Amino acid sequence: MLRVGSRTQFQIARCIQQNASRYFSQAVASTTSSSSLVETSIDGNVATLTMNRLPVNSLSLEMCEAISSGIKEVEANPKVQGLVLASLSKSTFSAGLDLNELYNPDLDRLTAFWKSFQQVFLDLYGSRLAVIGAIEGNAPAAGCMLALSCDYRIMSSGSGKKVPLIGLNESQFGIVAPPFLGHLMLRTVGQREGEIALSLGKLYTPSDALRVNMVDEVVDIEKVLGRSYECAHQWAKIPPHARYASKMLARKQYLQELHATRDEDVEAFKGFVMNEQVQKNLGAYLQSLKVKKK
């Protein structure tokens, strides 16, 4: 679906709620396209990619492909310099990998799935756009990867007693963060903090995440989107060649390392997932989720 000159009802409501309309007022026209999994919109030089695989935006093969496709779609517009990555759900940014992709998997699909997950990381972390993460809800595991891949991260302080959490908690349910994601954590929070966090599968509150540089700002939940658009416009004002070149000074070598070892990473991942004990752990965890729903 493609519409020119109008936004979806969701975007209008959210922008009004976030008092962010002034960041769109200068746009001559807007373009919105959507799929069942993500929605992209463009207003002036800032785009939005909204994840829409409810209830928790878990990353299936199709979801990974949709995110990468959405990024490429907005990058193809030369006017766009900033991107806000957001979630339709206020309670969950992304819950991470869809574990159904890992449990008793078809090997061909497992291969395609992991390659698509790698590609999401490469597309976000290496994007020519200034990517601002609007993290209103929980971002565990691969949801944390989506956040850490952004140039700047703004997290909600929570709503009432509901405080969102962020971190790589894979070890808690018997699997290990992939090397490129574990190293990203170490690069972000530091060696010692990262070692402890990865080993314990630690999830951070917003204030703790801010303390260790996992996020850059913590604001009230109703201000996350508005502040994210403000930052996106601020970053988009920087001359794009200078901004992107500066970004690559910090990220190019890391991106090249993953590009060079993608096949090796896929095989290592498949070998780990197909381990008998890992499958038992995954099965037990998925069963526990079913019990909780009853």
From TrEMBL:
<dbReference type="InterPro" id="IPR018376">
    <property type="entry name" value="Enoyl-CoA_hyd/isom_CS"/>
</dbReference>
<keyword id="KW-0809">Transit peptide</keyword>
<comment type="subunit">
    <text>Homotrimer.</text>
</comment>
<keyword id="KW-0413">Isomerase</keyword>
<keyword id="KW-0496">Mitochondrion</keyword>
<comment type="pathway">
    <text>Lipid metabolism; fatty acid beta-oxidation.</text>
</comment>
<dbReference type="GO" id="GO:0005759">
    <property type="term" value="C:mitochondrial matrix"/>
</dbReference>
<dbReference type="GO" id="GO:0006635">
    <property type="term" value="P:fatty acid beta-oxidation"/>
</dbReference>
<keyword id="KW-0443">Lipid metabolism</keyword>
<dbReference type="InterPro" id="IPR029045">
    <property type="entry name" value="ClpP/crotonase-like_dom_sf"/>
</dbReference>
<keyword id="KW-0276">Fatty acid metabolism</keyword>
<protein>
    <recommendedName>
        <fullName>Enoyl-CoA delta isomerase 1, mitochondrial</fullName>
    </recommendedName>
</protein>
<comment type="similarity">
    <text>Belongs to the enoyl-CoA hydratase/isomerase family.</text>
</comment>
<dbReference type="GO" id="GO:0004165">
    <property type="term" value="F:delta(3)-delta(2)-enoyl-CoA isomerase activity"/>
</dbReference>
<keyword id="KW-0007">Acetylation</keyword>
<comment type="function">
    <text>Key enzyme of fatty acid beta-oxidation. Able to isomerize both 3-cis (3Z) and 3-trans (3E) double bonds into the 2-trans (2E) form in a range of enoyl-CoA species, with a preference for (3Z)-enoyl-CoAs over (3E)-enoyl-CoAs. The catalytic efficiency of this enzyme is not affected by the fatty acyl chain length.</text>
</comment>
<dbReference type="Pfam" id="PF00378">
    <property type="entry name" value="ECH_1"/>
</dbReference>
<dbReference type="InterPro" id="IPR001753">
    <property type="entry name" value="Enoyl-CoA_hydra/iso"/>
</dbReference>
